[in-house]
């Protein structure tokens, strides 16, 4: 496989066949993100996509799930996605779901009929970068949606038979607002009920607008202790009945991870967070900063 850029996908997709269908992100304006800043967004030719599908099939591959890359593959034109889905289903009879990242705007720009057609073609999980339950934070981070827009479009995608998953970032509201953000985000999730939640706790990366905001005193980052306390409050407040939700939370700066299923494993996860909070209360504050921007790479496998 030839892959241009930095591979980034949710941990629930680790066993999926990752099929590149685009390079970069068509939005590419989130203030915290550097994954695609060095790339010029473009749709990959159908011939290249089909060649990769046939290569994997020739090697005996028959994946149960396929993940379409890159940043927001759901933004591709519906007819193009349907053609890709058809090639996948014909080549891989065991495929049960075709998953990808999406934005709220991607959903808004597709009609109800298009959403239903994509679901019927095998598109399953859509990962949305919800990030925060606070409207002012979404605006500051230049996300492509408001909370009200997110509520509306999630309702549409679920009505069409698509599956909603969420990405969030503890720490994104900044210093002193962790618990406020946790409570607002928990309320959002209690209303929208994602099947999977991935928390990539905020990491300030050199070269991003948010990094420059922090250096200039326009954004004050939360410590990793505050991020842990925010995550604990979020998990504490999320309540579902009759639904199991997969949760995976990463704090790369302090190499801490908590994962499990709600509601059954909530107490276990809260206990893990209590232990980490106790440890970090005894240490000097740590902030997640990275001075170096990773080089653009082309990965071959």
Automatic annotation (TrEMBL):
<feature type="domain" description="Radical SAM core">
    <location>
        <begin position="11"/>
        <end position="244"/>
    </location>
</feature>
<dbReference type="InterPro" id="IPR006638">
    <property type="entry name" value="Elp3/MiaA/NifB-like_rSAM"/>
</dbReference>
<dbReference type="Pfam" id="PF04055">
    <property type="entry name" value="Radical_SAM"/>
</dbReference>
<dbReference type="InterPro" id="IPR051198">
    <property type="entry name" value="BchE-like"/>
</dbReference>
<dbReference type="InterPro" id="IPR058240">
    <property type="entry name" value="rSAM_sf"/>
</dbReference>
<keyword id="KW-0408">Iron</keyword>
<protein>
    <submittedName>
        <fullName>Radical SAM protein</fullName>
    </submittedName>
</protein>
<dbReference type="InterPro" id="IPR023404">
    <property type="entry name" value="rSAM_horseshoe"/>
</dbReference>
<keyword id="KW-0949">S-adenosyl-L-methionine</keyword>
<keyword id="KW-0479">Metal-binding</keyword>
<dbReference type="InterPro" id="IPR007197">
    <property type="entry name" value="rSAM"/>
</dbReference>
<keyword id="KW-0411">Iron-sulfur</keyword>
